[in-house]
What does this fold into?
Amino acid sequence: MKMSAAAFGGNMKLLLDIWGFGRCPPDVCENAHLWEPWGNVVVVVVIKPLKWWTDILDLVFVKALAGIRRINLEGLRWKVFDAKGQVLGRLASQVSTVLQGKDKPTYTPNRDDGDMCIVLNAKDICVTGRKLTDKHYRWHTGYVGHLKERTLKDQMAKDPTEVIRKAVLRMLPRNKLRDDRDRKLRIFTGDEHPFGDKPLDPYVMPPRQVREMRPRARRAMIRAQKKVELQKQGGAAIPIRKNKKKDEENVEVLA
It folds into this structure.
């Protein structure tokens, strides 16, 4: 049986980046008889079938571990963000701050001093307003008329990790340090991750100050309450005039 890169969920490139081109990964060597590159397709001859669920988990963890060897982990902190119940933009702003190292007194714009960021429970992220249906992700395939778009709701159903990744990357400066900072960001759909042996430090999100009611709505409510109180007292409601000068001029003209 031959399997192409698509059979492994498009993660062959990540496997090759970790174990080297043309070498058999440890989790596939048990069941694979041949591992060789052929053009842009990697051909694997499997002797016995793999368990699909364990393979999916392995590929998720393999994708999470990809590019770690390119990062100098000496002196870096491992910050863990819990996205459950958090607002997307507020969480992304805090993650981008830690990735850039702006929370350190030694921050320098031209140096990558950011820490490792692990985001858990990406599927439980929240948004405000009608962004689930009104926010769109658009891309072009390169062919004429092939402008694709996907709503935030559909993207959350397809891959919620990309929602947070795009929000964080668009808050980072577009320079040569952007790719290095992207490698330090690891996002997971649930609460399981392969970094249990690292010194993890849970990140405490700052308290969110939520206004109970906007000022205009509050003023309208107060006016309505005063109007009801005047009606209960038996007095007529006093009309509120916005342009008193125009009313006075009209009175003078009539006189």
In short: The CA atoms of residues 61 and 124 lie 20 Å apart. DSSP finds ten helices and nine strands in the chain. Confidence is low (pLDDT under 50) at residues 1-50. The longest helix spans residues 215-233.
